[in-house]
Amino acid sequence: MILDIDIGNSFVKWRLSDGAEVRQFGSQSTKSIGQQRGLDLPEEVSISQARLSSVAASSVQNALVTQIKNQFNAKVTLAKVSSTAAGVRCGYADPSSLGVDRWLAVVAAYHLYQTSLLIVDAGSAMTLDLVSEDGRHLGGYILPGLTLMRDALWRGTDRVKVDREVDECGIDPGMDTITAVNHGSLLAAIATVEKLANQYQSKVVVTGGDAKKLLPYL
After folding, report:
1. What's the sign of the alpha-carbon dihedral 100, 127, 21, 12?
2. 14 neighbors 25 (Cβ within 8 angstroms)
3. CA–CA gap between residue 30 and residue 41 (Å, rounded)
4. How far is the C-alpha of 101 from the C-alpha of 99, rounded, in Å?
5. 111: closest CA among 84, 88, 128, 142?
6. Could you tell me which residues come within 8 angstroms of residue 59 by beta carbon, excluding any fewer than 6 positions away?
7. Where does the sequence pass through the membrane (predicted)?
8. Is 101 an annotated catalytic residue?
9. Is residue 161 scored above 80 in pLDDT?
């Protein structure tokens, strides 16, 4: 079996596949890995190879690499950004400075659609990357994600104090402060996506934990 692991800022996602079909998958908080809990993987499976992508602290990545080698005696391959991959040419002068999560999303999306794309990864941060029809990565943008937008208002103002547990979605004008903040954050994200998609005449591909909140409005 092949184990794929995506270590994000908030969550670690994993899947087990036989090379053709996904057999099992799961996720847990990145913080739990840092607390030496390790990744909750089924012990009865045989893993021949692990492929790992990480934007988290090196301590988290190192902990998982050690766990996989000790628990399964499997080879671990770390994803890295390259100047070209699968028909896509990286737009950064220094490809190593591009986040590997963004690069993998760009390469995967272009592999699927082979056209002009705007790839939106709506996670802790919201990243937006543009790819031309011929596979040139045109660069991108990094914005606070929906939760970070709300937290910035909570921390940076005296009177805009929102309930962090409330996560109601919508874009209608808010009739109370909590709704105004939640809807305003979502509207800002949607407006950014629509502006870029229209400007570059690109097909929009959305992924990430908050994708389900954006998609109904795009």
Report:
1. positive
2. yes
3. 14
4. 5
5. 88
6. 34
7. none
8. yes
9. no
CATH of 91-217 among 3.30.70.60, 3.40.190.10, 3.30.420.40, 3.20.20.150? 3.30.420.40
Tokens of 152: 């910035």
Q: Which residue has the tokens 């992924």?
A: 207
**CA–CA dist 148, 154 (Å, integer):** 10
With a cut of 80, say whether residue 35 has pLDDT above it: no
CB of 60 closer than 8 Å to CB of 33: yes
Cβ count within 10 A of residue 209 = 18
Tell me the β-bridge partners of 174: none
Give yes or no on whether 2-78 and 91-217 have one common fold: yes
Pairing of strands 49-54, 75-78: parallel
Q: Does domain 2-78 have CATH number 3.30.420.40?
A: yes
167-197 residue pLDDT tens: 667 999 988 888 888 899 999 999 999 999 9
Residue of 6, 101, 121, 210 marked active site: 101
What does DSSP say about strands 49-54 and 117-122: parallel, antiparallel, or unpaired? unpaired
101-122: burial string, b at 16+ Cβ within 10 Å, e else:
bbbbbbbebbeeeeebbbbbbb
